[in-house]
Design goal:
There is one protein chain. This protein has 481 residues and is an alpha+beta fold. It has a seven-stranded mixed sheet with strand order 3-7-8-14-11-10-9, sandwiched between helices. A five-stranded mixed sheet has the order 16-15-17-18-19, with helices on both faces. The chain has a three-stranded antiparallel sheet with strand order 4-6-5. The structure holds one RNA strand of 77 nucleotides.
RNA sequence: CGAGGUGUAGCGCAGUUUGGUAGCGCGUUUGGUUCGGGACCAAAAGGUCGCAGGUUCGAAUCCUGUCACCUCGACCA
């Protein structure tokens, strides 16, 4: 047994350091997360990948409910006239809308957009539903898929159709809407850090980067292992932009007709891409325990021997009773070594080996995926031991990612330093004008932008990544996905 | 849409320069021995060489066209 060493296995995935893109593609295909669909720019999410999404939905939904939101479902098709109502919004989305032009064999009188996002539908209904200040706020969320005809696509990061959640709320006052916008940004941040183990920066985006039709857009950005920024969630404050376009008005306590203030916020399956590109290593995935479809895999060793399988099944039942997601790999068609490597590639956080020697000693041999550390856990009370190991793995993943990001975050006082830093990671710098920022990131700096002064005063803590205008003057710059 | 690259067995590739029987590794199937870090032996199956034309006695190989995918830009969650 075991003539081939692990080096040989590792070479099956393109080394991360050599070609990060190829590594990403290798990992998602070889770990059974997705397959390429034979449909333009779309992917098939396989059971293991979809399992992650289900857990994300569960965790997020609980947070939405806790902040007073309810789930709804709106149609996938949007009449063109509805989409055209808010000028800035149309302009922003027009290049990437897919249209339905025929019903059966008949050409439609009005073409229907396949939703790229549902602001217009929500607005249309809100206009009917709202009469009085008593009806406000309305805080709805929907889980669905949307379609955007992207020019180039990559699984999870950018596909034509993608799964997401979109929250849409309307409020009586500007203050309330702003509070909602920031609250949901905080919900996202807390979720990213505490559930996905993704350290993120949150902040406001620049006018050029903001959502089409929004007064203000906020986002959370994570650093991938190639130093690029990935937007993992975004919230928008529309003010009364859409309310005015769609006539969403209510009668206030004072008897005045007022426009509502609206927000929207969304996160998508892209978060799965963020997990992969943040936590993955040379062996493949490292799933953050709280969204790992399989948290513990039990590998019976020498399972043909008497009593081993029975004990393994009992162990599985015990761990499941403790609330853990457990897989028992009792396939006898693969050797133990083969299975070790497969589950490591799939990123299962904890592996429990259970063989005759373990059973004899009353223990299971545990291996944690984050550090490859092996230890013996007493079978007696093993549920708690595994749970605390999972918590520890979560924290290790978070701290590793944070240390990586911090080490690649530079401070720049001039354009040269900014340009240089952006090649490797994030750059913290004072706001120096939108044109100059973009130029720096895209290596197309010209003389006029280069001469714009860096403002060294005022360094607020809430800042944003990727060419965003912060609430104050400090911001982060990075190449973005 | 601009620039570059790749299409040969399920997967990864060689063969193309200089035209001459379609190859290799992994995987798969069958039988046996194994089983605590991708086991070994033996046998077998599997390909209209992306597609369409052309040149030629003969094309994976040369010519023309076309399609798909990948990387980098532009656009975006």
């Amino acid at each position: 047994m075991g003539k081939k060493d692990n080096q040989e296995f590792v070479t099956q995935i393109t080394p991360r350091s050599e070609d990060f893109s190829q590594w990403y593609t290798d990992v998602i295909l070889k770990t059974d997360l997705v397959d390429y669909a034979d449909v333009r720019g779309c992917m098939v999410i396989k059971p293991y990948g979809y399992g992650i999404w289900e857990l994300i939905q569960q965790e997020m939904d609980a947070r939405f409910k806790a902040t007073g939101h309810k789930n709804v479902y709106f149609p996938m098709l949007i009449p063109e006239s509805l989409l055209l109502k808010e000028a800035e919004h149309v302009e922003g989305f027009a290049p990437e809308v897919a249209w339905v032009t025929h019903g059966g064999n008949e050409k439609l009188q009005e073409r229907l957009a396949i939703r790229p996002t549902s602001e217009t539908l929500f607005c249309n209904m809100y206009a009917k539903w709202v009469q009085s200040w008593r009806d406000l706020p309305m805080k709805y969320n929907q889980w669905c898929s949307v379609m955007r005809w992207e020019k180039s696509t990559r699984p999870f990061l950018r596909t034509s159709e993608f799964l997401w959640q979109e929250g849409h709320t309307i409020h009586a006052t500007a203050e309330e809407a702003q509070e909602e916008t920031l609250q949901m940004l905080e919900v996202y941040r807390e979720f990213a850090e505490n559930v996905l183990a993704l350290p993120v920066y949150v902040g406001q985006k620049s006018d050029k980067e903001k959502f089409a039709g929004a007064r203000a857009t906020y986002s959370m950005e994570a650093m991938m292992q190639d130093g690029k920024a990935l937007q993992a969630g975004t919230t928008h404050n529309f003010g009364t932009n859409f309310a005015e376009a769609f006539g969403i008005q209510y009668l206030s306590k004072e008897g005045q007709l007022e426009f509502v203030h609206e927000t929207s916020w969304g996160t998508s399956t892209r978060m799965i891409g963020a997990i992969i590109m943040t936590h993955g290593d040379e062996r493949g995935l490292r799933m953050p325990p709280r969204v790992a479809p399989i948290q513990v895999v039990i590998l019976p060793i020498a399972q043909h021997k008497e009593g081993v399988l029975e004990r393994a099944r009992a162990l599985k039942a015990e761990l499941e009773a403790a609330g853990l997601r457990v897989e028992l790999d009792d396939r006898d068609t693969y050797s133990a070594g083969w299975k070790f490597n497969e589950w490591e590639m799939k990123g299962v956080p904890v592996r429990l080996e259970l063989g005759p020697r373990d059973i004899e000693a009353g223990v299971a041999t545990a291996m944690r995926r984050d550090t490859f550390e092996k230890s013996q856990l007493a079978l007696d009370g093993i549920g708690d031991a595994v749970k605390s190991m999972l918590d520890s793995i979560h924290h290790t993943l978070f701290e590793q990612a944070k240390a990586f990001r911090d080490a690649k975050t530079y401070t720049a006082a001039d354009m040269d330093a900014l340009e240089k830093g952006v090649q490797d990671g994030f750059v913290k710098a004072s706001w120096c004008g939108e044109r100059a920022c973009e130029d720096a990131i895209k290596e197309k700096t010209n003389a006029s932008s280069r001469n714009m002064p860096f403002d060294q005063s005022g360094m607020p803590s809430d800042v944003c990544v990727c060419c965003g205008k912060p609430a104050g003057k400090l911001m982060y710059f990075a190449k973005a996905y």
